[in-house]
Amino acid sequence: MLDATEAACLDAFPAIRTHREAWVGRYLVTGATGGMGVVLCRQLASAGHDLVMVGRRPAVMEALIADLKSCGQGSHSALEVDMADRGSVARFAAALAGSDIALDGAVIMPPQPARTADPMPAPEAWDALFDGSFLGPLGVLKAAIGKMSPRPAAGVRAKVVIVSGISSVQVLSHYATANVLRTAWLAQAKTLAFALGPQGIHVNTVSFGGTLTPHYLSLLQGRADAAGVALDELLAQDTENVPLRKYGSAEEAARTIAMLLSEVSDHMTGLNLLQDGGFTRAY
Predict the structure, then answer these.
(1) Domain-embedded: residue 220
(2) How many Cβ atoms are within 10 Å of 241's Cβ, its own excluded?
(3) Where would I find the beta strands (DSSP E) of 196-250?
(4) Are 58 and 69 in contact (CB under 8 A)?
(5) Largest alpha-carbon pair distance within the chain?
(6) Alpha helices in 23-171 (DSSP H)
(7) Is 153 part of a structural domain of the chain?
């Protein structure tokens, strides 16, 4: 819902109203039931967007859909897929292709590899990691792109946002496998930006720094308890090397993703946007 000031502004400038209303669309979202995903879905639903949620737990997604009815008037649906299972991804792609779903974009949140300091995992470990965190999500994205019909000449564009992490751009010793997998996503996104740009499909990535999702907060609380310090004290210690002296919030992350889906990114593609409080030290 628009507040009084926004409504008055849009009434005064009809072109703004037309542009804004044209942005309401349908977006596929993976990782929708995660800590960041739930916040993102609530924000997009509140703005009137329709959502197609993709994940392994249909019951959890259906519960989220019921919750979203209180956030907006969009029409939401869920499709099951296990991105670590190639057969499941193939079945998902066939189901999406055979549906009447039309997409205006997608948010891909690849499952993040567990922390590991092993710089040379066994080949079998790499196979599992690439299947679940790269090849599976890429298959989902390919299926989603097949349901997009942008018309750039008419100003109708499709937006893809791939969510990554800080090791996409800054090597972290305890994220050995993530250093590789997240960087692979940056290269793939840049390739897709060149390939799909002429069709009016934008592909951008976001590299988030530490983000206080419920899961990450529980990890931090466990560390604080083990060290016998308060959580606030641990957070202050952890963010001493972050210029803004804080971690991000799921709400901040959701706003950034929503921005990249909006008309703000109409002349942006192949971009990796850093949202890390200034942690990355590079020109």
Answers:
(1) no
(2) 11
(3) 201-208
(4) no
(5) 63
(6) 35-46, 58-68, 86-97, 123-130, 136-145
(7) yes
Whole-angstrom distance, CA of residue 110 vs CA of residue 177? 14
Nearest to 142 by CA among 103, 191, 202, 93: 93
Residue 240 covered by a domain? no
Q: Exposed e or buried b for every residue in 101-113, given b needs 16+ CB within 10 A? A: bebbbbbbbbbbb
Q: Which pTM value belongs to this model?
A: 0.88
Domain CATH number, residue 71: 3.40.50.720
User: Is residue 185 within 8 Å of residue 208, measured between CB atoms?
Assistant: no
Mind listing the pLDDT tens digit of every residue in the chain (283 residues)?
444 544 444 454 444 344 444 578 999 999 999 989 999 999 999 999 999 999 999 999 999 999 998 777 789 999 999 999 999 999 999 999 999 999 999 999 999 887 788 889 899 999 999 999 999 999 999 999 999 999 999 999 999 999 988 877 888 888 888 889 999 999 999 999 999 999 999 999 999 988 888 888 898 999 999 999 999 999 999 999 999 999 999 999 999 999 999 999 999 999 999 999 989 888 7
Q: Residue 161 is part of which domain span?
A: 24-211+248-275
Domain count, the chain: 1
What value, to the nearest 5°, has the Cα angle with vertex 60 and ends 247 and 257?
A: 40
Q: What is the CA radius of gyration of the chain?
A: 19
What 8-state DSSP symbol labels residue 263? Answer: G
Q: Looking at the domain assignment, is residue 192 inside a domain? A: yes
SS3 53: strand
| Residue where the block lists tokens 């993709």 | 54
